[in-house]
Amino acid sequence: MKILIVASDKGGHFSPFIEEQSAALQQQGCEVLRFGITGHGTMGYLRSLPALKKCIREQQPDLIHAHYGLSCLLASMQRLVPVVSTYHGSDIHDPHILPLSRLAMRRSAWNIFVSKTALSIAQNERFLPSPVCLKTCSILPCGVDLQAVKMHNKVDARKLLHLPPTAPLVLFSGAFDNAVKDAPLAKKAVAELADAQLIELKGYSREEVFLLMQAADALLLTSRSEGSPQVVKEAMACGCPIVSTDVGDVRELTSGIAGCYVASSREPSELAALLRETLVFARESELDKHESNAGQAQSGRTNGRKRLIEKGYTNDRIARQLMEIYTSVLSSRLQM
Fold this sequence. Notes:
With 336 residues, the protein is an alpha/beta fold. Helix content is 43%, strand content 14%. Helix 8 packs across helix 10 and helix 11 crosses helix 14 (304-311). The longest helix has 21 residues, at 315-335.
């Protein structure tokens, strides 16, 4: 099966989680092709249509899998091969992008939503008058490659990153200049903690990101909206405690995991109180003597990794489900 992945180009590659999903599909026996979109804005994307059609004629893929609303719209503007579209959250929650995502949904052979929240918005007739496109849809978040996460204890991770050994370190969920992430709220919350440092998650390699998640006392997510935030699943894979606003599927993902907290409001004081809980969790956990293995938490770490395995949110499991979707779409096409 030959699959053409269509997504925004990030300097010769896609976003890491799309690249990792593509690698997992290859391990399942797919031949994976890539079409990176270098344009910006709606017209920038749509100007890539001739190049996409040329790529399809030359490469002859069986199916296109597009990621994010504008990429999905572009992919669905051709009718040479069927399109599976994945919407990651920003393309559903942004009122300027949603109408374009809605058009892509109507034209796609299958639609994938990464959380129940995103699907519920799509099902709202106020946003999506025609329900026909939702007859062929799935809720399927992106997975995590647990094999790519090399585990270190907090002390060693901080040494490798040259971070202070004992200061409270809070890892922000993205770049400070991403308005949706609401960095001002995070800064207000962390300012209420004595000597705590808020680290911007920007400009690090993949390996360094995983090290940061193992070095930090907590990941703080203050987003105004999310789908199924990959940064949360990656923090879970690293056993990093999590404090988050109630967005996307974070509450469902982390429910019942010691060291993970979802705020009931967007008040800095509540977020600060929950961050203090993560510091207490870390201190108390460090008294434990058991070592980490097969889903068990090490000292100061959560059992998030075990939860990911239980829910099947690993790249190999997600890739197998994608293969089932691809097969269904292609079978339906043959029957037409």
